[in-house]
């Protein structure tokens, strides 16, 4: 069959070829970002609902002001104390007591925990005595501390340290004993000395339990400070609440309670951040893990 002439081939209709168009960038949130946002907002649902119920009930008269003042009244009381400088001064004093007492108690708990967890001799020397002291409610020592040291800074710091020591100690010992002995032998077979085994094997293995003890100890520390400042103190958040009770200022009492709750939340948040940075290998604390 003869081929069509060249002009006929030129005039023949050509098949249209459609080029793929680039996808338009999405302007809305991706499902992954939406899940992250929902995960971040989820813990605040209940506190926000409670605050709304609190304010609504107090404003409508369902909750008597003498029982629980409105949230707006508590905020006004905090604003007034902040303007006079009493709020900042008392908060800073309580934070200083917590910092010193927690540092002393946590350090002692870590040192004793590592000694008892790594040495049978240290366990025989210290563990039974510490367990006996642990069963004594440290808050029952408040009158004795006042009789010994008065109502200055020392008894409050010592009580916070005592309340902090045992949670850190127990969790440190349990964390060390929970490390697989085969990993320790493996580290020694690779030429690690005693300090190398502790640093490279024991500490990473025991760190989740140690940080759990620190989180629990922070809560005990604030609880101890509340009692110590309420019973014998001339300043601090507990003194602020005690002084408000004598003046029948319920709004300032509730303000002090909220300050303790906020301080405890921030302390727990700080430990959670430390967990994420110190335990990148752990599946529960891995940074940037997919949710």
UniProtKB/TrEMBL annotation:
Residues 1-32 are annotated as: Disordered. It comes from the Bacteria. One of its GO terms (biological process) is alkanesulfonate transmembrane transport. It is found in: Cell membrane. One of its GO terms (cellular component) is plasma membrane. The keyword Transmembrane applies. Keywords: Cell membrane, Membrane, Transmembrane, Transmembrane helix, Transport. Its main location: membrane. Coiled coil: none annotated. Residues 87-271 form the ABC transmembrane type-1 domain. The chain crosses the membrane at residues 98-121, 133-151, 157-177, 213-232, 253-274. It is a multi-pass membrane protein. Signal peptide: none annotated. PANTHER family: ALIPHATIC SULFONATES TRANSPORT PERMEASE PROTEIN SSUC-RELATED (PTHR30151:SF38), ALKANE SULFONATE ABC TRANSPORTER-RELATED, MEMBRANE SUBUNIT (PTHR30151). Belongs to the binding-protein-dependent transport system permease family. This is ABC transporter permease subunit. It comes from Streptomyces radicis.
């Amino acid at each position: 069959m003869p081929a069509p002439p060249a002009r006929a081939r030129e005039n023949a209709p050509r098949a249209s070829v459609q080029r793929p168009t680039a996808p338009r960038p999405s302007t809305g949130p991706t499902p992954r970002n939406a899940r992250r946002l929902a995960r971040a907002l989820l813990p605040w649902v209940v506190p926000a609902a409670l605050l709304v119920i609190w304010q609504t009930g107090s404003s409508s008269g369902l909750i008597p002001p003498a029982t629980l003042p409105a949230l707006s009244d508590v905020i006004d009381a905090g604003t007034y104390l902040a303007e006079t400088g009493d709020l900042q001064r008392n908060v800073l004093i309580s934070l200083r007591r917590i910092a010193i007492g927690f540092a002393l108690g946590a350090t002692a708990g870590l040192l004793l925990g590592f000694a008892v967890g790594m040495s049978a001799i240290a366990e025989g020397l210290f563990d039974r005595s510490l367990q006996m002291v642990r069963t004594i409610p440290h808050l029952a020592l408040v009158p004795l501390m006042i009789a010994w040291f008065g109502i200055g800074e020392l008894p409050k710091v010592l009580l916070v340290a005592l309340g902090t020591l045992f949670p850190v100690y127990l969790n440190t010992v349990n964390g060390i004993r929970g490390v697989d002995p085969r990993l320790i032998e493996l580290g020694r077979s690779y030429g690690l000395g005693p300090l190398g085994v502790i640093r490279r094997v024991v500490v990473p293995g025991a760190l989740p339990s140690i940080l759990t003890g620190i989180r629990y100890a922070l809560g005990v520390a604030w609880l101890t400070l509340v009692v110590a400042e309420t019973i014998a103190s001339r300043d601090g958040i507990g003194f602020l609440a005690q002084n408000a009770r004598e003046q029948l200022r319920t709004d300032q009492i509730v303000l002090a309670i909220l300050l303790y709750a906020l301080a405890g939340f921030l302390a727990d948040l700080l430990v959670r951040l430390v967990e994420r940075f110190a335990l990148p290998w752990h599946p529960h604390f891995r940074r940037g893990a997919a949710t």
